Amino acid sequence: MELRERLARFKGAPLVIGFSGYTDAASVASFSIGYLIRRTRAERIGELRGGYYVMASARPITVIREGLVEEVKYPSIEVYASSEPKLLMMRGEEPNVNWEGYLEEVMRLIDEAEVSMIYTLGGMIDYLDSPKVSAVVNRPELRRVVVEAGVDLIDYEGPCSVYTALLYRCRGRGVGAISLWGHVPFTVYSTLTQLRSPDLKTSYLTLEAFKRLSGVDVDLDELRGEAERFMEFVERVRGGREGQPSKFYNSYIY
To answer: Would you say domain 3-238 falls under CATH 3.40.1360.10?
Structure first.
């Protein structure tokens, strides 16, 4: 069964996108989308294969056992779906090339699934004491929605991610979209990089903002507890004291 046929079961669902790469400081995006996929027990319904990667920078992943090549997996953008809650999800590495082709392929998916709203999840490093979440929207009326949900709006001018290009394209097609960004404190980021672990606290705050904005009922209690315990561990590491990391420790490599 092709992707478009599977999408028919999820018409009207919101679409959430989380990419690794440029948009993924401290693995906030890749961890968050992975957490959503696990908690909603989503099924993989297909992938986008449009030649969106430069293999010199987004190299295939291989499995070699006792000298024998068993698998070579090329980078792709995977599409997942859950029935309860009704949700479409997309994950992979941010496209390196052919953004125009990627945007058009996503727009076809949006049309075929009659997607009700788009949310993107990202992570960025910031000079602040505590993590926070900010947003970018593609319609003026969404500003109020975001502010009422307790999320900051930003001012920015400079290079953009594929998320921003997608928001702009969606506006021209009449589809609402919100890009959520978790701000990772620089001092915490430097420690997490050494631990090779995701920022659970910023991921939790980002998913909590998504939950408030979308109304999607996803249980975040487990993540909140793990985030609190892991931040205590991070503080012990920074203070030179030993401790036991979260069960999510080293599950995601930034």
So the answer is: no
